[in-house]
Amino acid sequence: MNRIGRWARRWYRAWRASRLGTRLAFGLGALSLVVFAIVGALTVELMHDYLNRRLDEQLKTSQVAQVPHLRESKDSPEVVYSWYSAVFEVREGHAVPQPGSTLPNDVRPLARIAEEATGGDLFRTIALPGQGSYRVRACPVETSQNGTAGTVLLSAAPQADLDNTVQQLMLIEVIAFLIALAILVVAGRVVLRRGLRPLSDMAGTAHDIASHDLTATAALPVRASGTGGGAEVEELRTAFNLMLSHIESSLAARTEANDRLRRFVADASHELRTPLTSIRGYADLFRYAAANEPEEREAHLEKIRAETARMSVLVDDLLLLARLDARDVEPPVRPRRMDLTEVAAAAADAFRAGRPGHPLTVSIPEEPVLLHADPARLRQVLDNLLANAAVHTAEGTPVELAVTAADGMAVATVADAGPGISAEDQQRIFDRFYRVDNSRTRAAGGTGLGLAVVHSLVVEHGGTVSVDSRPGRTVFTVRLPLSA
Description:
Blueprint: H1 2-17, H2 20-73, E1 84-91, E2 94-97, H3 108-116, E3 122-128, E4 132-143, E5 150-158, H4 160-211, H5 230-285, H6 294-325, E6 336-339, H7 340-354, E7 360-363, E8 370-373, H8 375-391, E9 399-406, E10 409-416, H9 423-427, H10 450-460, E11 464-470, E12 473-481
Parallel strand pairs: 7-9
Antiparallel strand pairs: 1-2, 1-5, 3-4, 4-5, 6-8, 9-10, 10-12, 11-12
Helix pairs in contact: 2-4, 4-5, 5-6, 6-10, 7-8, 8-10
């Protein structure tokens, strides 16, 4: 039993490891073999029954034709083919064959049937010693009044020819079914191979993708191509290519995010290094006697405070962007019902006080513009946009601040009459640490984070921010959904 179990497990593992087309072909062959076996068994059984009925009809026809003659003449029974034919005289339960009968050496099996036939016609199938099976029919020629005695005609036909016919039929069916099974398996394997070729092509595509170095590039240059295979295979091919497109876009997004993270870390390190270096340099001056004069010491301290304030603003912006990126850890905004006109008015007052060299025009409606937002963060958005307009335009350049409401959206615009921003720079103006070459310099005080903070805060509130610029006119537009 253990050897059989090991053999069965070995064959099962080999079966599982074989190709799908091979398994389908052999499965089809096994199913066909079962069908052929059922059809063959039914055919043989039906043929055997049919030949038996034909033999019974021949026996009956032969005896019906002889019975009237035997009643009148008492002659010997007619010999038909190679059958045994006999007339038995039944007396007191014993059957005695009459002269002229054709009988085997051992007549006892036939005599017992003759003894039973005094009561009516009957069929029996018996085996005669050394001669095989015989089909026997016995019918009464004459019977006594009580039905226990009389004359009986008995015919016995050999079934060897019938059995040979059935055996030949079985042999023909087996050969025909085996040929049909072999043709079916071979043809099925060919058809299945052609039908499964699109799946093999997709497997080849997957192997090609696995051979690519996805760490170097996110592009997946291969796709499942070809036609045929039916609707199901076409659907699978489409889904496979769509999956590859999603993987490619995800890899591209991850690569871009990693590149952006590396640039962000590099820029942040560079930006933090500059004020730290300045602070360390000014602090080192206190070691020298030349820095002991009160006026000079105060100047150095003022430089240290300025660099510290600049670094604090940079760190605060970095922390805010990090919180916006990790909103699941800590909510970056605390929205509540608020009036945007009040925030805009406060931002305008602060801008006039801090930037008197830039005339500001304010257009705010008298009706409240209600939002569900964080007022402190929206104030930061407006302050950054106004500061951006002042820092990157010349002294005396007019600035405009307007607030409107239309189509379920609150719209805040900050415009200036500065030199404008090129189309290439407008595509990246909201990236972190990005500066326009001709204006956004460290000398001008920009860190490259102000507009990135604006964009992140507006998106966090469910809004959008855009820029439209040409020489002499730059407009930043913030759109936020109104409170329901």
